[in-house]
Amino acid sequence: MRPAALIFDRDGTLIEHVPYLSEPGQVRLLPGVREALQAAQAAGARLFLHSNQSGVGRGYFDLAAVDACNRRLIELLDMGPQPFERICIAPEVPDEPSAYRKPSALFAREIMHDFALQPGQLCYLGDRGSDLATAQAAGTGGVGIASGLDDLRAELRALGLAGSFPVFDSIGAAIRYLFPPPMNHPDPSTRIFSLAALLDFRVQAAAQGRRVVLTNGCFDLLHRGHLTYLQQSAALGDLLIVAVNSDASVRALKGAGRPLNSEQDRAYALACLRSVDATFIFPGPRLAGEIAALKPDIYTKAGDYSLDTLDASERAALLAADVEIRFLPFVDGHSTTAHVERLRDTGG
Which of 27, 132, 235, 290 is the right S-S partner for 142, CB 3.0 to 4.6 Å? Predict the structure, then answer.
């Protein structure tokens, strides 16, 4: 279920974590925060802010300083005078009784009551274990963002919450997980990724329990053999990623005169296919580094290959990542090289 409301932590999630922040001039947005919150708002989500500020209870600064820093955050977001429908500040130190200090679920319960939301419609986002412990206490969704000073994954292990909530390395990846763009978007260019963006895509797929299939090739002149092979690959999982050889690597593999189509045109043609969910161009000629980074669930290759004839570096990367390797039937009579030779023989 797409959340109807998001509760954000502040320090280390939206802005750089400055210990006991009290000066508005030290407020700096983390990369991608403005765009992520705008995307969440555009998706219809209500935005809230919940921050522990024990510096008040320790006497380091007062609530007016916290409010000044919040106003500076809002200025930097440039999303109007009040992008957050409510802001909750818990000023107590950890050992003091507190109604709202995270992991207290009181603020979340008030939001659910006042806005008539079910727990599944509310999601906490933060960089600390206490943020996700709050989500657990309230029974809401939760997403970790490993952008703060502490090791969030280690915190979650210590709290016994490892594996309970997805964790992303950026707020942009977290928002794309919560509000994924439709894979059938009419613009095929939205399915052409950089490797860095595709890693976010891969993490989102894993968090959603979706099996990712990876294949690669030159795909210089799409023909029935390619189309059949891609359809068969897609049927093995939930998402199909196609790695496209760069122009330089095609020349290295196929020789002078190839490719017939540029790498961008080849990636675009593949992105137009219903069976393909994502494409990216890799420098090549081998895919070992990309396999190690993406760690797909399944890797496919045409049936004219075998485990013994796979490139040794690719085979090692696949085995190291425990990837299932599938060799699919080769469609006889269909190859780009054969088509090119026939065209040359006929002067086409």
Answer: 132
What would the two tokens of residue 125 be?
A: 């986002």
* Same-domain pairing of 68 and 192: no
Six-digit token pair at 113? 């009551």
Cut 0.90: pTM above it: no
Mean pLDDT per 10-residue section of the chain, whose length is 348 residues: 92 97 97 94 96 97 98 97 97 91 97 96 97 97 92 94 89 86 71 87 82 93 89 94 94 86 94 93 91 96 89 95 92 58 56
On whether both 130 and 198 belong to a single domain, the answer is no
Task: Assess contact for 123 and 142: CB atoms under 8 A.
Answer: yes
What are the C-alpha distances in Å from 20 to residues 9, 16, 87, 207?
15, 12, 18, 33
Per-residue DSSP letter, 121? G
From residue 183, alpha-carbon distances to 31, 273, 275 in Å are: 25, 11, 11
- CA–CA separation, 181 vs 32, rounded Å? 17
Is 13 in the same domain as 122?
yes
Q: Which two tokens stand for residue 346?
A: 């006929």
Measured distance CA(89)–CA(92) in Å, rounded: 9
Written as one string, the DSSP assignment of 20-89 is: T---GGG--BPTTHHHHHHHHHHTT-EEEEEEE-HHHHTTSS-HHHHHHHHHHHHHHHTS-S-SSSEEEE
Domain that holds residue 319: 188-346
Say which residue the tokens 């490797």 belong to. 195
The CA-to-CA distance between both ends of the chain, in Å, stands at 54
For the annotated catalytic residues, the residue numbers are 151
Last residue of a domain, one of 132, 153, 178: 178
From the list 174, 165, 103, 176, the residue with the least C-alpha distance to 145 is 174
